[in-house]
Amino acid sequence: MTRAITLRRPLVTLVAASLLAAWSVIAEAGPVPDRTASQGTGGRAGSWAGSRMSTWTGSRTGTWTGTWEAASSGTAPALPGASIRNVVHTSVGGRAARVRLTNRLGTKPLRLGSVTLALQPPGEPASPRAVAGSVREVTFAGARSVTVPAGRDLVSDPVALPVPADANLLVSVHTPADSGPATYHRSALQANFVAPRGDLTAQESGAGYAATVANWYYVTGVDVLGPSVAGSVVTLGDSITDGTGSSFDANRRWPDRLAARLRDLPADRRPGVLNAGIAGNRLLLDGRGPSALTRLDTDVFSRTGVRTLIVLEGVNDIKGTPERTDPHALEDAYRLLVRRAHARGIRAVGATITPYGGHGAYTPAREAVRQAVNTAIRTHRIFDGVVDFDAAVRDPARPSRIRPAYDPGDHLHFNDAGMRALADAIDLSALVPPAAGRGSAPRARVRFSPRSPRPATHP
Questions:
Q1: Residue 56 contacts by C-beta under 8 Å, 6 or more apart in sequence?
Q2: Percent of the chain as helix, strand, coil, to the nearest 5
Q3: Range 47-70 average pLDDT
Q4: Which of 74, 156, 381, 399 shows a CA-CA span of 20 to 30 A to 140?
């Protein structure tokens, strides 16, 4: 399949100064020496990541890169006295890690009695068991327990644990008391585990984790210290990016497939892939999670080493309630999003909205809006690059529908084959820095053209 991405402006003209700094070694990273989180929802988690650490005694060579993310999508009842074992999947590896925890949507201070990080045995995604000898205590400015204020995120001290790429980690948290609504990611598509009573965060066998949940509680990201200078790619989206329709416990969302393709690159040029998808998310309005525009600071700009943002948002604005019938409203939102990304030296790639003919929310009028938005994405030079997901998955015989081979049955989301087709439509040269020794010139496969002014199509 032809990889349908075209870049609109060269990297060197967009972010030359910021990338020179961002691709440098930043191994002096770590949390501020304070036992209570000070990171606000609108701030930058990098304010923690840029401070010297007091507990890390390993080598400081390498670069911190985001390897996994889950965007906060809502709240669930707290589980006082429980231990929760979250299973998360890495995109890139490193020789140390740090964990990002969240009370972003909580209303009371979150007390964490203990947190651990461990490796899950390969091939056992539905097991709470940890690899023998891999459990590590996670600390916060040297403290084993910590309180996270409502509305805040927290980054841990570095953890001396070799972390492979394409592996499952266990992030276990113990909440000794009722800290109010728990910030969580609702649609994990992954079995996670709960021990109803007691601090079992250090338990290797996992025998006490009697309950299974399909949500990620309190954990919002993992960074690794490794050789890559390629930074990370954030995929900002809705349920399609979140993975709805793909196999459970299998990590076959399209961002997972993108990470698998990127692993063919040399380790020093391999970016991490961070999935900021939220099922039901919208570009313009809050609903299932904050809107894409509202959550840029927390889910994109605060993440470690972000170089590129891929945006697949808009179908829920078109088909949701209230529906947005003016394609220009979505175009204006995309432009604002791109301006904010550029202000932080981040390249923005726009994805066309995929078909959903046959779904219960489909109407010809909404299809006309989708087509108009896709035309704007392709031709109005909103983004630095375009990946044509619509062209990659639509049925040639019925372009308002996705190919039957990609349809899990609801005519909106994608099965594993469809997720693979989405990821395979992306040209990897758009996501990585030039190889060492080649200077800053773009690779030959990438076509550049100057951005043009926005067409004067409406007042």
A1: 30, 96, 157, 158, 160
A2: 20, 25, 55
A3: 63
A4: 74
